[in-house]
Amino acid sequence: MTELALNGIFRSFGPRGAEARALDGVDVTLSAGETVALVGESGSGKTTLARIAIGLDRPDRGSVLLDGRPLADRRGRIAHADRARVQMVFQDPLASFNPHRSVAASVALPLRLHGGLSRAARRDRVLDLLAAVGLDADLGARAPAALSGGQLQRAAIARALATDPALLICDEPVASLDVSVRAQVLNLLARLRRDRGLGILFVSHDLGVVQRIADRTLVLFHGRVVEEGVGPGLWRVARHPYTRALAAAVPDPAVPWRDRPRALPAAVAAGAEAAGPFAIPSGCRYRLRCPHAVPVCAETDPTLEPVGAPGQRVACLRAGDPALAPPQP
Length: 329
Ligand code: SF4
Prior knowledge:
This protein is of the alpha/beta class. The chain folds into two domains: 3-218, Rossmann fold; 222-324, no CATH class. Helix content is 29%, strand content 21%. It contains ten helices and twelve strands. The protein has an eight-stranded mixed β-sheet, with helices on both faces. It has a four-stranded antiparallel β-sheet with strand order 2-1-4-5, with helices on one face. Strand 11 and strand 12 (313-314) form a beta hairpin. Helix 3 (103-114) packs parallel to helix 5 (149-161) and helix 4 (119-132) packs across helix 5. The model is unreliable at 263-276 (pLDDT under 50). Bound molecules: iron/sulfur cluster. Iron/sulfur cluster (SF4) binds next to loops.
């Protein structure tokens, strides 16, 4: 089974001595047939990690292995066959299409690059791909700007499927879509995973979105995974104060207010010092925003430890405290 493993990934940007640490020792694995969600706010490092996973960026330290072998060689080149096995879907579908090509021509482009098909076979394959994502064949003849956002994101997914990949890296694929269209695209990704055995790394700032399709969820804060959970219910059992703040923003009308995790107190949120990747504080990197911080949080950098539900791991010195226990059903 295909597996992509990112081990101990470090990545910084900016001039020496004033670097911004985007990723600070992140481990992620993605196997065919599972959906791993990577959640965090802007600047958490999630898009950098997605780009590294597909070989569009290189880590300063750490390894990216596809089935145990380096994805890229020392000069960053990726073997043709491996590039076909891991494909990416971008946030802005319009920006990812050539405006001067028809949608069908763009979907066919990976088939031309990877070769092996006649023109007629490519045309048939494009029609199959458009059908697989629920698009009518006649939409393929149109320019990208003539399609709606949802239709174009479907076309982008069709293009990513052209090389029959085992893994898809999806960077905020529904962030620019209306709520109703968003649900359709999420359902499409869930179906593709089920029918084709795809592994999907789903990057999002919205915990509510990823909870619909995630088998595992990793919560990233300032370049570090601060909580990991299994299954779709992490937001219900979250113990890290940052995950709880994300979970409090999930608008699920089926859950009574008293059962939802508490958001940050307004005074803490408003007065929080935005440390950002340029100024990660000593000890716990979340402590400048954390309403549960105690003095030891300034001295000790917490690591991910098992606590709570099966498969749950939390990087918080107080994760086992009753104050951070999820509400009882
Ligand atoms: S270690 Fe301390 S500061 Fe960090 S999240 Fe836990 S309680 Fe808050």
